[in-house]
Amino acid sequence: MGKIVITGASSEIGLAITDQMSRLGLPMLLQGHRNMERLSPWSPPAETVSADFSRPEEVSEFLSRLQDTDILINAAACTGSGLIPLMSSTDVDQLIQVNIQALTRICQAVLPGMCIRRKGIIINISSVTASRVSRGQAVYAGTKAYMEAFSRGIVAEYAAKGIRCYCVAPGSIEAGTLRPLAGMAGDQVKATNATGAMGTPEDVAQAVAFLCSPQAGYINGAVLRVDGGFWTGV
């Protein structure tokens, strides 16, 4: 019996995803970097590991734990922002290391085993900024655009071997860096959505659960936007 691997599991969205996926009754490996105590309701029986994906050596150690992965959910992310000329090389390097390099290496590690078993599901948590970039988010949006293109590449190479790969792209979710913004400028944030409301981490988690279900068996390579009808940007 293969296991579920969730990166970024200690984030608010990661916790909601963990709660949904725990209902499948499969072994789980949960990675986090901060707020690891949030994972205590699932550990044990789930295995938890603290790893800073901005450090390549910690990514390498994490890769050694990925044997027999049937479902991989990449929710770990760096969310730095800033105008293009003002972003430091350190900030840019961190975004690339976490959102591109670590993501790529983790997928590389699980794909061979999935191919041997002729089954596997990979879900990458993207962002609506991948297709509609806001001011100050150019580098972050670029990393998420990579994620979406990379996910389509996985499908092109491995769908015939029974592997499904998707992106879930949240919009204005009341979690993480958007939570304090919602308190200060909630009406403006809500106005970016056609529904006039913000989403919840559970909305994202339910989308992930659907894509992991047999009902999504003939969907592959899709980007599922959980965004309330987001329409601003260019």
Order of helices and strands: EHEEHEHEHEHHE
Major sheet description: 7 strands, parallel
Question: Which consecutive residue ranges, at least 5 long each, have pLDDT under 50?
Answer: 181-185
CATH homology-level superfamily: NAD(P)-binding Rossmann-like Domain
CATH class: Alpha Beta
- Taken from the alpha-carbon principal axes, the silhouette is globular
Q: Can you count the helices?
A: 6
CATH topology type:
Rossmann fold
- Structural class of the secondary structure composition? alpha/beta
CATH architectural name = 3-Layer(aba) Sandwich
| Whole-number total of structural domains | 1
Number of strands: 7
Indicate the mean pLDDT. Answer: 92
The side-by-side strand order for the widest beta sheet comes to: 3-2-1-4-5-6-7
Helical fraction: 25-40%
Structure description:
The chain is of the alpha/beta class and 234 residues long. The protein is built from 6 helices and 7 strands, in the order βαββαβαβαβααβ. Strands 3-2-1-4-5-6-7 form a 7-stranded parallel beta sheet, with helices on both faces. The relative contact order is 0.14. The model is unreliable at 181-185 (pLDDT under 50).
What's the SSE blueprint?
Layout: E1 3-7, H1 12-22, E2 28-32, E3 47-50, H2 56-63, E4 69-74, H3 89-117, E5 120-125, H4 138-158, E6 163-170, H5 178-190, H6 201-211, E7 223-226
Parallel strand pairs: 1-2, 1-4, 2-3, 4-5, 5-6, 6-7
